Amino acid sequence: MSATSQLRKWLPLLLRILVAAIVTLPAVGKFLDYGGQVEFFASLGIPAPEILVLVVGTIEAVSVLMLLLGIAGRVAALALVGVMLVAIITAGVNPLNLTVLLASVGILYLGTGPYSLWEPEDRLWESTA
What we know:
By secondary structure, this protein is mainly alpha-helical. It has helices spanning 3-32, 34-43, 49-69, 73-91, 95-110, 121-128. Helix 1 packs across helix 2 (34-43) and helix 1 packs across helix 5 (95-110). The longest helix has 30 residues, at 3-32. The protein is elongated and about 50 Å long.
């Protein structure tokens, strides 16, 4: 097996683990420190912070779970791309949100790899390629 095929086999799994490792704590923190997160969102000028903290926390938590299990990983990665773009625009670039953004784009391109439970979007992706 060539190095390229090995990389194509393992890179999606590594990207999924990387994203999960970075996003899990902030996602859970949005629920555990709800008041602090609402204040932080409000300080950034985000409208309806009481609602958006819950929305963003839910998107992050569900996306992490989907990526770890390999269930519709491109859908989860697309959701995280949106969240990270808003985070970068409102709070500025930092190494973590940039890493999650780039890894999510990688998952969008590569899919979640052979160690996935369900990738329904691959049929659509492959039929248009």
